[in-house]
Structure formats: structure tokens, C-alpha cells
Amino acid sequence: MVCLVSRTGRHLQRYDNLGRRQVVGCIPYRFKCSSDGAISGEFEVLLISSQKCQKMMFPKGGWELDESREEAALRESIEEAGVVGNVECELGKWYFISKSHGTFYEGHMFPLLVEEELDFWPEQNVRKRAWMDVKEARDVCQHWWMKEALDILVERLSSFQQ
């Protein structure tokens, strides 16, 4: 068994040339299986609750100096949602203001094709996780920029299935 601990602090945090904190997130997803065990074209996504309230979002956090964006995205997914998988091509970059801090951020989002859901993970005592279909996820996700990233993922996955 491996012991995982969440990173804390801002001493390795990245900021862009305008002083915006750079954050990276993932949309963890998996394909649904039919009753006979075959993988269908439908997929579901994993959302997590905020630490401070029960609002739902995708895993995200600071991009640190000692890691790539993809490594940061995977780390956040492990720490916050307890999932491991394959980080795929970036969905995009967004600029937004934190409602709680009133500061500017640059956010990057990636799809994460989930390969394993961990029984134990660093933030399991402060977050809930829930698999949802795309419509429900879009309805409950609290961040507009994450909803836009989800729309891009839906379009991307739809184009692969045609």
C-alpha cells in the first residue's frame, strides 16, 4: 500500500507574466458498459465536491514549478478525486476570477480517461465524488469555464465515434 498526501502551500506555485495563478484540472471520464459487458459509446464524468461547501466541480489545483501541466492534472485527480488514468490532449485554456478570493486565474483543462478508482485517496475525508451523465454534470458544475471544457470533451468524443 502506498501512502498519498496532498501537496500544500504556494511556494512552488506558477503565475503567468500578468500575475495570474495558473491552475490545471481534469475531467475524469469513463465509458459505460452495456448489460452484456460491451463498452458503449456513452460516457460519464466524475465530479467532486468543494472542500468548503457541497458545490460540485471537476478536480483542479495549482500547477507547480516542478511538474508539467499533464503531471499537475493527474496529481490533482489523484489527490482530490482518487482516480488514476491517462491524461489526454488539453481541452483549452480559460481566464477567470475567483469568486472567493477576487483574484485572476489562468486555468487549463484536460480529459482523464479513468483506469482505476482508488479506495483511499488524500482528500477522501473532505470531498465527495460522484459519477454523472454529461447533462447532470453540466447542470451541477459550479464553474462556467469547466462547463465549456466539458462541452469540448463531448464534441471531441462524439467526433471519434462517428
Tell me what the structure shows:
The chain has 162 residues and is α+β, with helices and mostly antiparallel strands. It is built from 3 helices and 8 strands, in the order ββββαββββαα. Strands 1, 2, 3, 4, 5, 6, 7 and 8 form an 8-stranded mixed β-sheet that branches. The longest helix is centred in the C-terminal third of the chain and has 17 residues, at 144-160. The model has no long low-confidence stretch (mean pLDDT 90).
What are the key terms here?
single chain; 162 residues; NUDIX_hydrolase-like_dom_sf; eight-stranded mixed β-sheet; Nudix hydrolase homolog 18; alpha+beta; metal-binding
Write the layout of secondary structure elements.
Layout: E1 21-33, E2 39-49, E3 56-57, E4 60-62, H1 69-81, E5 83-87, E6 92-97, E7 104-117, E8 129-133, H2 134-140, H3 144-160
Parallel strand pairs: 1-7
Antiparallel strand pairs: 1-2, 1-4, 2-3, 2-8, 5-7, 6-7
Poorly predicted ranges (pLDDT <50, ≥5 residues)?
A: none
What percentage of the residues does DSSP assign to strands (E)? 35-45%
Helical stretch count? 3
Total DSSP E strands: 8
Short description:
This protein is an alpha+beta fold. The protein is 23% helix and 36% strand. It has helices at residues 69-81, 134-140, 144-160, and strands at residues 21-33, 39-49, 56-57, 60-62, 83-87, 92-97, 104-117, 129-133.
